[in-house]
Amino acid sequence: MTRLPRRWVVGLLFGVDQMGLADVALGVLLSGYAAYLVTGGDSRHLDGGWTATLAVLLMTGPVIFARRAPLLAAAALALGAGLNWWLIGHLVRCGAALPAVFYVAFVIGTRCERRRAAFGMALLAAGIACQGASDPQLGSPLVAVIMVPLSLVFFGLGRLLRSRNATVRELRARTAELHEQRERTAQVAVEADRARIVGDLDTFLQDRVGEIAASAASGHAVLYSSPDQAQRAFVAIQDTGRDALTHMRHVVRDLRDSAPTQPAPVLAQLDQLLSDAGRSDVALRISGDPRVLPPGLELSSYRIIEHLLDTLDRDAGPHATVKVCFGSGALELTVTGPSVRPGDARRALNAAGERAAVQGGSLRSAVRSGRRETVVLLPLATGAA
Questions:
Q1: φ, ψ dihedrals at 90, nearest 5°
Q2: Distances (CA, A) of 147 to 91, 92, 151, 155, 357
Q3: What's the rounded Cα separation, in Å, for the pair 274 and 324?
Q4: Which of 27, 66, 106, 193 has its CA 20 to 30 A from that of 322?
Q5: Which CATH superfamily hosts domain 265-385?
Q6: How far is residue 20's CA from residue 2's CA, in Å, rounded to a whole number?
């Protein structure tokens, strides 16, 4: 047996596979009530018999596929009203048939453009006139003067729902677009951060190798004449080499952590930053009104604190503190603790200052009694822009 293509079957059934349970329930309810009316439910009028029962279904049944094909449903209602007037005659049907008309008018308002909507409402108006001529409770086709405006009210409600749904879709699309833009902005910031790290690496290594070479040359020159001075030169080489290795570890970590396939780090991950850096001696304090900031500002703030941690001496006794204060107009970052040598801190301060400048902020750092306090102010308005 040859099977019909699915699209033909769907077309013949008016898209029955896309009908909702509510559509079917409403159609069954109105059809049952209409059958009750024409078979003697209204004692003031005669029983219309099974012929009238089947005919009246044309005035209620089309609501089942109204959402799938609103114009076809409107045409079916108008045709059903005309056939009932012509073939059956005067019987009470408006109690079920008019709600069907109003529902289809509402659906037309939600789903049809202007020309199609006007055509559909004209069909419904014709159906209302036929009902007025054949239903003794309505009494006259002139009842359309009242019922057609009422159907337009339902049409207007459908239009309002259509407008609301369009607004909701637009807002959802805008939200998705903003989310994608946020992800793209964060990705660009991560790429820029990686480029900066790679660009600075060569300069840093050249500086450190130059320092090592100079220390080695000075130590070799006084190796026999002044052993103490030579020993200090070799200790300086050791310290410089250790600093270089520490910096290289940070570079490798940054390049790994800032891969573009991973989310950009944010301030909420500062606990993890301190843990990964082995800075259990650093206390983290958050104040103000913590909230999510623009991606660029979040990343810059995170990296600034990361740089400023390099200005603190890991081996010193006193504990260090990182403070993040969310103000109404600015984000204040304060890093306090025992300072490394000024020369070693200079590069980290420069990197943090560059990031602050990009966000329109400022950096202030001072050392008192061996403890460094660095304060960074980042305006939130600039970051948000």
A1: -75, 110
A2: 18, 16, 6, 12, 70
A3: 14
A4: 193
A5: Histidine kinase-like ATPase, C-terminal domain (3.30.565.10)
A6: 29
The residues with which 377 forms a beta bridge, in sequence order, are: 332, 362
Residue 331 near residue 324, CB atoms below 8 Å: yes
- Segment 36-57 shows an average pLDDT of 72
- This prediction has a pTM of 0.49
On whether the CB atoms of residues 245 and 281 are closer than 8 A, the answer is no
Nearest by Cα to 355 from 328, 382, 337, 373? 382
The domains of the chain are located at: 6-139, 265-385
Residue 331's pLDDT is: 93
DSSP 105-127: HHHHHHH--HHHHHHHHHHHHHH
Q: What is the spatial distance between Cα 6 and Cα 11, in angstroms, rounded to a whole number?
A: 9
pLDDT of 9 > 60? The answer is: no
